[in-house]
Write a structure and sequence with these properties.
Elements (H helix, E strand, L loop, with lengths): L16 E3 L8 H13 L12 H16 L3 H7 E2 L3 H4 L15 E2 L5 H14 L7 H20 L9 E5 L7 E8 L2 E8 L2 E4 L3 E5 L4 E3 L2 E3 L3 H12 L3 H7 L29 E2 L5 H15 L4 H12 L6 E5 L17 E5 L3 E9 L7 E9 L4 H5 L7 E10 L2 E11 L2 E9 L6 E7 L3 E10 L7 E10 L4 E3 L3 E4 L3 E3 L1 E3 L6 E19 L4 E16 L6 E9 L2 E9 L1
Parallel strand pairs: 2-4, 24-29
Antiparallel strand pairs: 1-10, 3-4, 4-5, 5-6, 6-7, 6-8, 8-15, 9-10, 11-12, 12-13, 13-14, 14-15, 16-17, 17-20, 18-19, 18-21, 21-22, 21-23, 25-26, 26-27, 26-28, 28-29
Helix pairs in contact: 1-6, 2-5, 7-9, 9-10
Length: about 550
């Protein structure tokens, strides 16, 4: 239900295209086909752009424009009425229309195919080695298989595009894109993206060269997962390791029980709550290589939602690998890794090559425990985007601010505070404004004696569902220690300050955070406090003068 800047955004890099130093002559037919495809990519394909309501309209506009180029027979093949059965008709196999919906690329004219690809480009992300760029590379890989021993069962022409319901900005529909080693199921409702999964991606071979250019389509995903595993200690790797062996992704293809979610209900592996910040960031960075395949807005929203759940995410793997060595992971048949949280499910597996038997090839599946298929098009929007959340000290008060975009059906925000970063309590409630862009400010002026205070926002939808923002911390007012005599104390307490105060305020705070004594107008360097009525226990004396805080603890006998 939120978006925040990913602190690990720079942890994983993956170049889409590498200039090859290998002199390898490719078959003439694949050189010509690949050059034509590369030249056909719009010049804007490498330019990242935000995905807003107008961009959803762009997807619909392009989808309807493509449909208008088709004959009536072709239109009937392209578009069907949404059913849960049709939505779950996707595959990771080269099985053509037998396991997919829609119209096949090879049956389209040059003009029709270009229009179909414009629909795909409008719906997917624009970053290098992600989204539409990845889509284009996987098509190249299948042409490469066709020309290098795979035969007629492989090729870019064997990919399909399908609409389940009429594309519209005022109703619900799904865009399906699929073929060997690729399946996208993107759900829309009332002009919003409401679901981006399931997604299946794969490639064989994992690296190939066409016309002097080397492509490694899933290298960034493999590297991110390997870096994540390598960051674990030997003990953590042992905890995370599964006893099973996987020859393919567990959740590929589709679902086996109609509209029943068949993902395991029991999580396995190593829970991330015990990981270091660096290790957690590497888990998030790995997730990002999948979410970034979507449009920028959906990608950021989902990454934020998944990241806020980091302490409930499990990492599991099987195969071989050594702590500290990323290159030792995910490099052989049956090597497998899984990320499984409250919402996110991502699998990545290495398999022996089918056409190139000397090489491994990759399969991956991204699912969402609650949001697959846009919950069968019933969702109204992806969770809102929390653009930022900040806490600062200003005039002796802690000011909390956050900005949102695309709020839909949000009920309220609850600001929560913690003095240890683990246990949080509600301190403020703010009603949601809803709309395209909103800013919020609230002030925490409670007296807190700890040097660092932690905050997060609980964001609650009108249907009762909720999620949390990232945690931010703020340094408390500067404090100076004071001397307390006697300590432990009886009926009175002498407070000795390092400097004199004038018209200062004092509070005595019990261990449970309740203020049990309050005095004002205190002056001098030594103060005598009557504590005869206090029960036995631990207390904190806090004296404030303007923005200076004096504090110390004592025991009442």
């Amino acid at each position: 239900m939120k978006l925040f800047s990913l602190v690990a955004a720079g942890l994983v890099t993956g170049a889409t295209v590498l200039t090859s130093t290998v002199s390898k002559k490719e078959p003439q037919e694949i050189q010509l086909a690949s050059e034509a495809r590369i030249k056909s990519l719009p010049a804007s394909s490498s330019v990242a752009k935000p995905f807003s309501g107008t961009s959803v309209s762009d997807v619909v506009t392009k989808a309807l424009a493509f449909k208008a180029l088709l004959t009536t027979t072709q239109q009937n093949t392209l578009q069907q009425t949404y059913t849960t059965t049709l939505a779950r008709k996707w595959s990771n196999l080269p099985c053509g229309s037998g396991c997919r919906n829609g119209i096949q690329f090879s049956t389209l004219t040059t003009t029709q195919l270009a229009a179909a690809k414009e629909v795909v480009q409008a719906a997917l992300g624009t970053a290098s080695n992600q989204g539409y760029d990845l889509f284009s590379q996987i098509l190249l890989a299948d042409d490469y298989l066709n020309a290098n021993g795979g035969g007629s069962g492989y090729g870019a022409g064997l990919y399909f595009i399908s609409y389940l319901n009429l594309p519209s900005t005022t109703s619900a529909w799904m865009l399906q894109i699929g073929g060997h080693h690729m399946a996208y199921n993107i759900a829309f409702n009332n002009g919003s993206v409401v679901g981006t999964t399931p997604v299946m991606l794969g490639v064989e071979p994992k690296s190939f060269t066409v016309s002097g250019t080397t492509y490694t389509p899933l290298s960034n995903k493999q590297a991110a997962m390997a870096n994540m595993l390598a960051s674990l200690t030997s003990t953590q790797l042992t905890t995370a390791k599964l006893s099973s062996t996987f020859s393919d992704c567990l959740m590929s293809p589709g679902e086996t029980n109609g509209n029943t979610n068949t993902m395991p209900s029991t999580k396995q592996g190593l829970i991330c709550s015990g990981l270091s910040t660096t290790q957690k960031n590497l888990v998030i960075a790995a997730i990002q290589t999948w979410t970034d395949d979507m449009d920028a807005s959906s990608a950021a929203t989902l990454l934020s939602t998944y990241s806020s759940d980091i302490n409930n995410i499990y990492v599991a793997w099987t195969g071989s690998g050594t702590s500290g060595s990323a290159s030792s992971f995910l490099n052989a048949n049956t090597n497998y890794v899984r990320i499984d949280g409250t919402r996110v499910w991502i699998e990545f597996v290495c398999q022996s090559g089918v056409v190139f038997s000397a090489q491994i090839h990759y399969h991956s599946v991204w699912r969402d425990h609650t949001n697959d298929y846009g919950s069968d098009l019933t969702n109204t929007a992806l969770p809102l985007k929390l653009l930022d959340f900040n806490a600062v000290n200003a005039d002796g008060k802690r000011v909390l601010t956050w900005n949102t975009a695309e709020e839909t059906n949000v009920d309220r925000y609850i600001v929560q505070r913690s003095i240890d970063g683990r246990i949080y309590a509600d301190i403020k409630q703010v009603s949601a404004k809803n709309g395209l862009s909103n800013s919020y400010t609230t002030i925490d002026n409670d007296l807190i004696v700890e040097n660092v205070i932690y905050y997060r926002i609980k964001m609650i939808d009108k249907d009762g569902s909720f999620s949390y923002s990232k945690v931010v911390s703020v340094k408390n007012l500067s404090s100076t220690a004071i001397s307390l005599f006697p300590n432990p104390a009886g009926n009175s307490l002498q407070v000795v300050l390092k400097t004199s105060v004038n018209n200062a305020n004092m509070q005595i705070i019990a261990a449970d955070g309740k203020v049990v004594v309050m005095k004002s107008g205190l002056s001098g360097q030594q103060l005598n406090i009557d504590i005869a009525t206090l029960p036995k226990g631990s207390f904190t004396v806090v004296i404030t003068e303007n923005e200076t805080v004096f504090k110390s603890r004592f025991i009442k006998q």
